[in-house]
Design brief:
Rossmann fold; binds flavin-adenine dinucleotide; 5 helices; seven-stranded antiparallel sheet; seven-stranded mixed sheet; binds FE2/S2 (inorganic) cluster; alpha/beta; 2 domains
Length: 244
């Protein structure tokens, strides 16, 4: 864990109410995909948590959806602004759990952390396929980024305006040959995925956070291993640990 003053290099909309923020600075505390960072945003009291979406060449990318005061303030960040950030938080995905081929399953903004995970899996020589679910075409992001990595992407939208019509399980259905999956999205979407797939996998959970560093217990959930703090024991949990 490390506190870093990052410098904004880019802050642009990439889909409806969805922005990409690229920050330059010391990324050394970030050990892998599925970890998160906490941004201090002027005007809001608590730091706001966001998944690491990508890390390359000293640049940290996060993708954020505008849902409230803090994320609305973030849209005003300009190139050159400084952002007080705690990095290297949480326990992330386990790329080594994939045998030959992984399926990455993203729901809405939960797609964000899967980009770095895809790079890690490819670097480890694994095959990767992607299933994405969004409500509507204007919300879709990162499809091209995965395709640029050479990955097959199955897309579903609830209203059928892009890809298959339906929820994310429609996008999962055509995927083949995977022995492990990684899923990030809303709790209701992840619960549906857990029920739909017999394959082993893991989930990145989201809870409202206070400290974000394991001290306040404000993000506790019940798991099959007892109570767990999403910020410090997760946010990634194995399928068999989850109580939905
Ligand atoms: C580990 C982790 C990783 C996350 N990664 C991302 C990410 O990559 N991209 C992204 O857009 N968002 C992510 N989030 C959610 C993000 O932290 C919240 O959307 C953000 O804090 C909202 O701040 P706000 O001030 O704009 O909204 P607020 O004004 O605080 O709240 C607006 C609405 O959002 C809901 N909300 C706020 N925080 C959360 C939360 N943590 N979980 C569920 N609902 C919440 C509130 O209940 C309320 O309805 C992540 C959350 C966690 C815990
Ligand atoms: S947010 Fe404080 S322990 Fe997780």
């Amino acid at each position: 864990m490390k506190q870093v003053n990052f410098i904004v290099r880019e802050n642009v909309p990439i889909a409806a109410d969805t922005w990409k923020l690229v920050l330059e600075g010391d990324c050394s505390a970030i050990s892998g995909s599925g970890q998160f960072v906490q941004l201090s945003i002027p005007g809001v009291f608590l730091r706001r948590p966001f998944s690491v979406s990508d890390v390359q060449d000293g640049l940290l990318t996060i993708v954020y959806k505008v849902v409230g005061k803090g994320t609305r303030y973030m849209t005003a960040l300009k190139e050159g602004d400084s952002v007080d950030t705690i990095t290297g938080l949480g326990k992330g995905f386990h790329p080594q759990k994939t045998g030959r081929k992984a399926l990455l399953i993203g729901g809405s903004v939960g797609t964000a952390p899967l980009l770095l995970l895809a790079r890690e899996l490819l670097a480890a020589g694994k095959e990767v396929e992607v299933a994405l679910g969004f409500n509507t075409a204007t919300l879709v992001f990162y499809k091209e980024e995965f395709e640029k990595l050479g990955l097959k992407v199955h897309l579903a939208t609830v209203d059928g305006t892009a890809g298959l019509k339906g929820v994310v399980t429609e996008a999962i259905a055509p995927a083949r040959g995977y022995d492990y999956y990684y899923c990030c999205g809303s709790k209701i979407m992840m619960k549906a995925v857990a029920a739909y797939l017999d394959t082993p996998g893991e989930f990145s959970m989201e809870e409202r956070m206070g400290c974000g560093t394991g001290i306040c217990y404000g993000c506790s959930i019940q798991t099959n291993n007892g109570p767990a703090r999403v910020c410090a024991d997760g946010p990634v949990f194995a399928k068999e640990d989850m109580i939905w």
